[in-house]
Amino acid sequence: MLPLREGVMLGLWSRKTVEPAASVPAGAGEVAFTVENTAAVEATFADWKQRGLNILQEPVQMDFGTTFVATGRASTLALAASLPVGALATAVLVVNNVRDGATDVRTGKRTLVVRFGRAFGIHEYRVLLALALLVPVALVVQGSLPRAALIGLATLPRMLRLAFAIERETEGVRLNQVLADTAALLVVHAGLTAAGIAIESG
Prior knowledge:
Elements (H helix, E strand, L loop, with lengths): L1 E2 L5 E2 L27 H13 L3 E9 L2 E7 L4 H6 L1 H17 L1 H7 L4 H5 L1 H25 L13 H13 L3 H30 L1
Antiparallel strand pairs: 1-2, 3-4
């Protein structure tokens, strides 16, 4: 186990000796988290088993404590609902690539902006913003999400401003502000959408 930061540990397992035996291609991973004690592990195991998760390994004592392994699958709705967050997170990276385009060319990086030009990056950014807006609308029209999920559309004026700003601004300092504003947009849009879903669902 390799300590990283803020309590995060990285564990590397041998495919030949890992328990339970690996049934996926090399390079697969798992996410683990700690709880207070063995009783909490047992309670979590019982809860997850009742919820129908596939249990690969029942609670067992290992070198690092009592543990179990479970797998599950995200629903199609969960994956679709995550698209706006993913789109806006990607938009943050696109702003960074647009800002650093000239530097990336000199250092040999192969970002999409380097390969296809600044205009491509600007269009990509705008498509990602549009995706973040349109996916919730489509899911509400389909009846998969409650209408309150559309509260995220309150960020439309901010999105429009940023869609023009990324083309207008060419200086690194000003594009830093576009980057920061896009990150803030991600937080606000995701928070509003999640709140809308929670309010009407609860």
